[in-house]
């Protein structure tokens, strides 16, 4: 950022998108970032694409579509948060009218206070206006390109209207005076469940990702009585579906933040950065002698000094043109400017062609092209170009030590991992396989820690190789301790390890081993499938409440229902999971005292059984029991004998599961203590990148040019609007909403699930 004013402006940013029934997508971006119209439309299309994918998931797992989403923007860098000004929340509000879709992605300086229904009405109104514009464009003399240009102009106009309503607080709730109760207000909702999670961050992902794990479900006593409790079952969100919803909401937030962050880029500044680094690469690429890191740092300063002199000379020449009194529109003036610069190229020691092309692009973004101007009126645009040019010098000075710090640490990680792999190459085949598996996982954890350290590095960091290797060893030891405590070997890991221990004949049972590796993931997917809205809720709606209130009848009918629905699913373990439903029914065959069950009790008991069964089956010792049952059913004697051998190998893997990570820990500790980094000199060009994709240019672009790089979107409130059939609408007085509200503390999170079912359901109609 160049000024505090621009930082303040960044608190309000907006991406608006509109999708036509005729498959035309247009949009607009409002905020301090300067993007070309092509990039703006790309961003609009991306936002709409993410929303459609998200809604497709919601329809399957919750029977709803997104009504409103708010994310709080968490800055993980406390020092940066105290110095710079950032928005505090990100909103996603979709709108629709008939087949027209529109949406708003907005960033604002506070959280809460928004009347979600008022903002949604505004977006819906815009969709209606677009529908009217669409009808007007349905004209034979207007081709597709003409329609797109017309819709783009209206997208710009409508987005400014929404932007005005946002910054003028037109959508805020009234804090004083008479307030009308909204369907999603707290006093209109009943909470029926909450889930606590541990929270972790993936710093080595781009953009940074937030992840919830180790969920703990807390079920509340049903807020409904008798028949209403049963009716509520047909519309509630199950625990697996809630977890899946939140998992995809985290992904949605990450993707939307990436798009919003792209909207902060000044394409002129980006072009200048690319130009500067390209020039440096051309210059240092000519050096064929090895150099030190200190040399490249010194070279950068020399380059900046030379480039600044050239820039100042260019500005002197530019000022001469600005004072010339030339008149005309922007195209005419820039052509005159170009000719003027060309003459100066012939007269002086500098060639300004490259700087003029950069300046011309920047000027075109800063002025209106259809106005007649005097040359002096380009003065502010030229000054702005000069400022962002010099600002790139500062960004490169700031980023180079961080990039080199990161580069050397990643280089050390690669050396350490390579040395460890060499050591395990000399081990017996099974130890080698499992050891290298754990080392690969440790590498990911280590890179994650290094990324965080490089981002939060002190501002005036001075590169020192001796201190760096000490810090690296400290990072490894600290990370290793927590890694060994938390590392988990999955069933698929143990299957792969057991396979390696077998002789070459394992190829004869390869199809079985491949199926075993899919076991854990398929079980998890199938449980989510069974308990999602489009499966179990649909079953509840189709069956008679009284008939399926008994657990045995419930299980038998649900089994037949799933058999039909899962017939087309190409998964190995679907039949195995279906057997769990039969097992659930068998639990009640030997019970001497029969009791009357309500459907609410049966449903709760069944869901708890299925969830506990899935957790139980994911245990490696239980998998060993499963193997015994599986092997008995194999008819081929050769395969059966090989599978028995595999089962013994798998049991051995379980026995060493706890001790083996400690063995790997000692190996890593020994290797890191032996690690030495000689201050070897390298070709200077190699210091400007870590890999083909990981370059100095990309590093600065992601972490400096994108203003929101240090902000992580954490879901705050998700409102879903239930999709009711025409028949179901008769049962409700108004719209059924589901809410998921989030809270965070330290490395923990909790989200609560609630709805307004009690307020909107017409219980008396069901009784008729």
How would you characterize this protein structure?
The protein has 768 residues and is of the alpha+beta class. Helices cover 59% and strands 13% of the residues. It has helices spanning 4-9, 37-62, 78-83, 116-137, 144-167, 226-233, 239-262, 267-285, 293-322, 330-347, 353-366, 379-425, 429-455, 465-486, 491-501, 510-530, 533-542, 551-565, 574-586, 599-617, 620-632, 637-656, 659-674, 696-705, 726-729, 757-760, 763-767; strands at residues 13-19, 25-30, 64-75, 89-97, 100-108, 190-202, 209-219, 327-328, 373-374, 711-722, 737-745, 748-755. The strands form two sheets. It has a ten-stranded antiparallel beta sheet, with helices on both faces. Strands 8-9 form a two-stranded antiparallel ribbon. The termini are far apart. Residues 764-768 have low confidence and may be disordered.
As a whole number of angstroms, the C-alpha radius of gyration is 31 Å
Percent of residues in helices: 55-70%
Q: Identify low-pLDDT runs.
A: 764-768
Mean of residue pLDDT values? 87
- N- and C-termini, Cα separation: 66 Å
Total beta strand runs: 12
Biggest sheet features: 10 strands, antiparallel
Overall form: flat
Number of helices: 27
Report the oligomer.
single chain
Beta-strand percent range: 5-15%
The structural class is alpha+beta
> For the largest beta sheet, what order do the strands appear in spatially?
2-1-5-4-3-10-11-12-6-7
